[in-house]
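> Could you send the Ig-like domain-containing protein prediction when you get a chance?

Sure thing. Input:
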Amino acid sequence: MNAMNQGKLPLSLSLSFSEVACGFFLILSAAKSKGMSSGSLSTVPQSEISRDQEGCKEHFVSGGIRYVDNVTFHGQYAEVVISQPRDGVIKEGEWFTLMCRYNNGFVTACWYKNNIYEDIAYQLRRKADSKTGGSYQCQNWSSSSRGETLKVVTIASDMTLTVQVHSTTLLLGETSVLKCSSYSWGFGRDYSFLWYRNNFLIEEEHEPEYTIAMARFSDGATYRCEQKLGFRKWISQNVSLIVKVPVAGVFLKLRTNKTEILIGSSPVLECVLSRGTRPYFQWYFQQKALNNVSMNYNFSSDWRELAIESFQSQHIGQYQCGAINRGPSGMIFNVTSNPIDLTLPVSSCAGAVYCSVKNTDTHNDDSKMDDSLLYSVVTISKPRNAGKGYNKHTSITFLAQ
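Output:
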């Protein structure tokens, strides 16, 4: 009896060791087949897996893969990343791909959306629709916990969103209101709003209206609004605003010291502006506009300067320049400079058709020019409704000196 018992004992022990070795081999093989590094592996009893309600473990068990815990990945968390599109912007009606990054690599994982099991896949590829947005998590089959949550917000396509503004041109110091408006508002819904300036989020603004108070030059920028409801978002087109300063302080300057010009000389007149945003210039001779290059007149590229190539008797007369820019709502600011009379020297007047020596003492040096309007005709034009399909301007003209 003792001999028999002694003979059975080694047999029993050998079977036990064989089972353990076989089980370890199967687990290790399964781990390697998944691309996992070898290490200390421990099995979870089948009873515990069957009692676990998480879809990931149940799905792997039903697929014949034993659930193991690889200590090499201990403390690592899975991360959901948007693989496609590359800019991470998921638009409804277009395809997108999510992948699960784990231990510096992408792995097959169980996928959850809003804590509900979705699928098991190496990548989650879907066509976005109105129900796509949500909180996504992935779980590697070797991990007992899910990864970090990625909130996916889709760009909706069933609502047109616009930024409404009274005028895209603002005067310095003016107040303007931008409105985020759509063609199909949902009543009783908890919409939230975001505003962006030059693609940077304006942190403190979450209302459907954004007010620019006392406009500064920095407020001249590109704006857009976003309207959000749950995991859906609508994005408006960009609207560009320009902040302008009305033209003022227009002064005509002659680069020579005297207004008596010798025949054949090349005088240059310069239109100096003390302030004003993006003005354009107009030149006048004998109170008539010079609109083309003629009679040896040459204009600089920005029309700030007028040069006479070869001064002749037909160039004798009065010159002025005007600076013009536009404000909001079609308002026009037009400031005309002081006049300068160009003449021939007294000794040359005998053969001249027209000769004048008046106004030879002009303000041509910078020391006599300050920020005020030395001699300017200021015209501010504002459109008014004239009826019958015609648009007319109401003009206010005054003399400043």
